[in-house]
Design a protein that fits this description.
Layout: H1 7-12, E1 19-21, E2 36-37, H2 39-44, E3 49-55, E4 58-64, H3 67-75, E5 87-90, H4 94-105, E6 110-114, E7 120-121, H5 127-132, E8 135-138, E9 164-167, H6 176-183, E10 187-189, H7 192-206, H8 209-213
Length: 214
């Protein structure tokens, strides 16, 4: 579509569409088009899953967020929740908000790093900022194919063995960001499992009992 504003008309005119996913850069831009938000999507302020409810000639679009679920359950096997964890979230877009919501569920404090609106700017981030946070999550699209030689500008020398580093990018399988952190001894994980888990949650939303009854 040339414009996201065409989305409602497309859904209205295509009765077979019962749901869809939303990706970068529309997870926040899609909000004004929707009729309703689930509780988690409202709290997060970003939507990656749209449920389509059709009643007679009316179409109701309900926004959900399954990203936070996918991230949380991909993170849990990797992290020891019995120790004091602290996270740095690289980026402040829609995906970062879902990550923050997931971290809230397991009571891991976090700070945002961004060029403009974060708690810490890339220009001012220090080695201590990196060392003190044992969980670092890249929520930006930097390093996504074909732009594989790009990565967040952080002091990688401060990455150590106590770090868990997650990149929401999954293409390529190992981004330059992950490679840099792995070379410093960190545990790494890409975003593929999060993608799969959020998709399963979205499928569950589209096929819930209320939808099946309609």
């Amino acid at each position: 579509m040339p414009s996201i504003n065409s989305l409602r008309a497309l859904i209205q005119d295509t009765p077979s569409i019962e749901g869809l996913n939303v990706t970068v850069p529309y997870k926040e831009k899609v909000l004004p088009i929707l009729d309703e938000l689930s509780a988690d999507a409202k709290t997060i302020g970003a939507v990656n899953c749209i449920e389509v409810r059709r009643e007679l000639s009316q179409v109701k679009l309900i926004g959900h967020n399954s990203d936070w679920y996918g991230f949380l359950w991909s993170l849990k096997p990797m992290i020891d929740l019995s120790i004091a964890n602290k996270a740095l979230i690289l980026g402040t877009g829609g995906a970062s908000k879902a990550v923050a919501y997931a971290l809230d569920q397991v009571q891991i404090p976090y700070q945002f790093v961004s060029r403009y609106a974060g708690d810490i700017s890339y220009q001012n981030i220090s080695e201590k900022d990196i060392f003190d946070c044992n969980v670092i999550i890249n929520t930006t699209p930097l390093g996504t194919y074909p732009d594989i030689l790009n990565c967040p500008a952080i002091p990688y020398s401060a990455i150590k063995r106590h770090h868990l580093v997650v990149d929401l990018v999954y293409n390529p399988e190992k981004t330059l960001f992950l490679s840099n952190c792995e070379a410093q001894g960190a545990k790494i994980k890409n975003g593929y499992e999060m993608l799969s888990l959020q998709a399963e949650k979205s499928w569950e939303i589209w096929n819930n009992s209320e939808n099946l009854q309609r």
